[in-house]
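Translate sequence into structure tokens.
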Amino acid sequence: MSTAADAPRGAVEVPPGLPAQLPAQVRDESPTGPRGPSAARARLLRTASDLFYADGVHAVGVDRVITEAGITRATFYRHFPGKEALVVAYLEAADRAVRAAVGDVPPDPGAAGGWLTGMTLHVADQLCRPGFRGCPFINAAAEFPDPASPVRRAVRAHRDWLQGVATQALRRAGHPDPQEGGRRWMALRDGAMVAGYLDDPQVARATLRDAVDELVRVR
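Result follows.
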């Protein structure tokens, strides 16, 4: 996995479980540009994203993030009131990346079915990327058991949205029960994310594709 030093200054490195390209507002969140105050925040977020995804959130302390990002403690707390806020920012950046990669469901029924298949292929391709360690949202949820915590709320918001777009695509494609289909798609996606990390990613990829092909064909 690449480190903070490998990425351009002011860019956010994306974990292998996410799209490789983040939208501009994630890469540089301040009008001052990459040399202004946003550069330190982006470097912190990039470093934390790498570390949280590779080693787990609880295994990575604030001191390590500060050291590897090459910033001062005062700078860290200027941008984030604490570690939990940094974890939420990490997940929110991941959410924006997925939303940017997915785009809008096309209104045409035939295209909507193809869109869901394409989104599935995008997920399947993540399983075979070097450094893949599963879904960052599932991983974070496992480390924060309180469903009312800000971290779990960020996870829930992402998952509700993702299942919603799958449901919308199935509805437009003429699926007889798009709500149930959306839940099934989410379960298939989650299973593939876990199996892709723990077992043979190629098998997980092929299994996901076949299962979603059957789901889309239901009439």
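Note: The CA atoms of residues 85 and 193 lie 25 Å apart.
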